[in-house]
Amino acid sequence: MDRIPILRIGDLLLVTVQVDMHDRLALALQDDLCLAICSRDTRGVLIDISALDVVDSFIGRVLADTSAMASILNAQVVVVGMRPAVAITLVELGMTLPHVTMALNVERGMDFLRNHNRSLDAPSESAGTLVPA
Amino acid sequence: MDRIPILRIGDLLLVTVQVDMHDRLALALQDDLCLAICSRDTRGVLIDISALDVVDSFIGRVLADTSAMASILNAQVVVVGMRPAVAITLVELGMTLPHVTMALNVERGMDFLRNHNRSLDAPSESAGTLVPA
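Predict the joint structure of the above. Result:
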């Protein structure tokens, strides 16, 4: 496989990683995601890794970098479905992914992104309020 | 890969087929989908095949059978993202998939399922209307 498909659902993108990603495939996914974010209004990206048995330090770094890139492009990345064994391995490798948002599954990740976007769209409470005399 | 992951989004299931399915994998997906439909309230199933270059007659039949099984289990299957070349090959193989619902992409498929479910939920117009005297 040369490309991992990116699905669009409204203003969200969904990527299901099903194969153990070799390095070039991971970088291709990163490029494709950045292009997809810019090509149409995109507020969030869900990356489902529930099928992955192994996430090595390179892939961990790609996930963290992708999240940072999307953030600069004004989209929030949520990585969903990480297996417990993968989390254990990542921490043992010294990768705690502090700036990557995680969620249990696609449903929870989607709820998070919807609430996140709603809170961004809502006008700030402090703006325009009148201070009582 | 031994299993294709099935993602749940509310009362919909989403399957992204990314590898050329050998026969056992296709039958395993069929079993898993039927189990997933029964395990929780499921109204629709989206099967994305945009990554597939080839759909042979066996896989075509599995798609048709899965759609029929889901229908008996009260869920609507929509196959999305079929490439033009795949459609051409299927018809040349003599498979027109008359009872399988198709959609251009996941977004359109999801819209279709939402409208479909809404129309099922809405009370029939003829029921309970008063005939003017």
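Chain B has one domain: 6-117.
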